[in-house]
Amino acid sequence: MQNHNPLVKILVIDDDEDDYFIMTEYIKRIPGPNFLVEWCPQYKEALNLICKGGHQIYFVDYLLGAKNGLDLLKEAIHNQCEEPIILLTGKGNQEIDIEAMQAGAIDYLVKSELNVEKLERSIRYALERSASIKALKINERKFRNIFEKSRDAVFLADENLVFREVNPAVSELFSYTKKQLCALSLLDLLFNPSDRLKLKDTLANIGEIEDKEIEFQTASGEKRIGILSLSREAHAVDQNHFQGIIHDITNLKKAERATLQAEKLSATGRLVQTLAHEVRNPLNNINLSVEGLVPAMQDDENKTYLDIIIRNSHRINDLISELLNSSRPADIIMVKTVLQKVIDQSLSAAMDRIKLKKIQLQLSFPQEPAYIMSDAQKLGIAFLNIIINAIEAMSPESGKLRIAIDSEGETFKVSITDNGSGISEENLSRLFEPYFTSKKEGLGLGLAATLNIIQSHKASVEVQSKPGQGTNFVLTFAKA
Predict the structure, then answer these.
(1) For residue range 327-341, what is the model confidence (pLDDT) as tens digits?
(2) What is the CB neighbour count within 10 angstroms for residue 176?
(3) Strand partners, 460
(4) Is the pTM higher than 0.70?
(5) What DSSP assignment string belongs to 229-283?
(6) Which of 25, 249, 381, 456 has the fewest CB atoms within 10 Å, i.e. is most exposed?
């Protein structure tokens, strides 16, 4: 009849062969599993066998020559031994008992008190505890793997929201090292100071935050937008702590804004085309009528009135053309272009304004040419519109204009930064809307046309601004 009892391999590490034989006899009399008991009297050989992991249980004598069983136990644990180790001594010693258990021993037995019952209980307990610890470690590795590889920022924080443990995504999101983050609070990373009080009040009253959209600030001062979930967890050892997760939606928000801007331009374009058609028809009739009246009305007074009508008709016609040009997709011819040259040409066109207002200009360009596919003339107009707006926003003599080109992966980023009056949050959301302007004599078409050109280049634009602190336009182009 086939024996279904499992085989349990035991290694007795003892420099006394008689003790090994006694242990073997006791173990053979234990009912249940089939036991294979092997002996090793040497410290180094025993450590090597433990590291290979060929046995389910190790009995280690405390006295092993120059080194003792505790030394072997500590070395085995240090070498990632996961199998149970039971320490044996000739006489009971409470200090050794405590030290052995603290070092990682599963049990502590006195040789003079050994019998079949005690060995059976110790082996059974060791095997059960070993199975439980292995299961826990497997789960820990599994969840640690999820924690470490999550693309969302996952963290643990103390009662003051100071980070205690973070996954790599947190460092990537905020551009801080793990060590730096563990000296910061989540509150330190909030972009808006008003959000700190709201966050504190919500946690004090409710104890958790679920799917709240919050603006964060990276180590470089860049604004990121994330969905924050945060909950308080009670722990017997650590007392109260918070566990949180941040889902970065910055790129999603950028895409939403770009789509919204494109939809606005499209809707405005349809409206402009309709109005242009309806206005130009009667305007053509007016012009034809005036042309018919010119030969018959040659006296100075009548001629003055006709000139006024003609000039304003032409002005209306020019405005209609300008409106149509701002709403139509830019007709561009893409060729390989050096980004530095395009910006230099735009700066040349704006240099008189820069000198008249005594603005300090700072350029930060890479040494090698930054190649992109573009229509240099039209892209130059877009840059010029942004530069002129920056110049007009700055005070004479104290203005600082910085233009930089940075290489990031497969893109070039152009930053145009001023220290001017800045833009309010309300106006920032409407910045590229056609006909929206904060200037007294502006039509609100310059930035609308700029966005049209940028989108025609399959590029993107992001604007960061604070009233009284200045504005930063960041344009992103694919490398050629």
Answers:
(1) 665 568 899 999 999
(2) 19
(3) 476
(4) no
(5) EEEEEEETTTEEEEEEEEEE-HHHHHHHHHHHHHHHHHHHHHHHHHHHHHHHHHH
(6) 25
Q: For 113-161, how does the pLDDT look when each residue is reduced to its tens digit (9 = 90+)?
A: 889 999 999 999 888 888 888 888 888 778 878 888 888 999 999 888 9
Helix H or strand E encompassing 339: helix 339-356
For 202-227, the pLDDT digits (tens) are: 888 888 888 899 999 999 888 899 99
What digits encode the pLDDT tens for the residues 96-118? 888 888 888 888 898 888 899 99
- What's the rounded Cα separation, in Å, for the pair 312 and 189? 56
The token pair at 135 is 């299961």
Dig out the tokens for 252 from the structure. 């999603």
Sorted by sequence, the CB contacts under 8 Å of residue 91 that are 6+ apart come out as: 110, 112
Label the pairing between strands 400-408 and 360-364. parallel
Q: 427 in helix, strand or coil? A: helix
- The DSSP annotation for 119-177 comes to HHHHHHHHHHHHHHHHHHHHHHHHHHHHHHH-SSEEEEE-TT-BEEEE-HHHHHHHT--
Find tokens 């722990």 and name the residue: 235
Whose tokens are 């966050």? That residue is: 199
Q: Which residues of 11-50 are buried (b: 16+ CB within 10 A; e: fewer)?
A: bbbbeeeebbeebbebbeebeeeebebebbbebeebbebb
Question: Whose CA is closest to 13, among 84, 52, 62?
Answer: 62
Q: What is the dihedral of CA 347, 351, 354, 355, to 10 degrees?
A: 150
pLDDT at 373 over 90: yes
- Judged against a pLDDT cut of 80, whether residue 81 lies above it is answered with yes
Do 411 and 479 meet the contact criterion of CB atoms below 8 Å apart?
yes
